[in-house]
Amino acid sequence: MKKAAALALMVATSWAHAEKIGDVDTAFKLVGPDHKIVVDAYDDPKVRGVTCYVSRAKTGGLKGLVGLAEDKAEASIACRAVGPVSFEGPLPKKEEVFSEGLSPLFKKLRIVRMVDKARNTLVYLTYADKLIDGSPQNSVTAVPVDRATPIPVK
């Protein structure tokens, strides 16, 4: 039982956490907050020195105020080396590094890291999915890593 609890804690703490950078209003709403585009920063939990910036729509109005709004499945991503890049250990070829709910029940924004070993590059993809029908809208960015620092792959 202790091992299961420790594993659950380790998985929960390995997820990236969003840091709000800012937002801009896109449409005035008489009741509740305005519709916005928000920009959040996500530090890759297994790659020190890489941060992803994601912009996405945030629905306002009365539904947004009470938490019942479903945000659009549109996002843009730009990941950058913000310091020396190092790795906590070998990375899987593909791994989800962050997900966040966009609706009260079924829609999630996801960020997936893929390793392009041949080019020593980290590729990050953002997209939204639903339980029944996901969205093909996506955005991709890449962070080349200096060849002197090979990306360790599992």
TrEMBL record:
One CC-aspect GO term: cytosol
Keywords: Signal
Source lineage: Bacteria, Pseudomonadati, Pseudomonadota, Betaproteobacteria, Burkholderiales
Top-level taxon of the source organism: Bacteria
Protein name per Swiss-Prot or TrEMBL: CreA
Signal peptide, first to last residue: 1-18
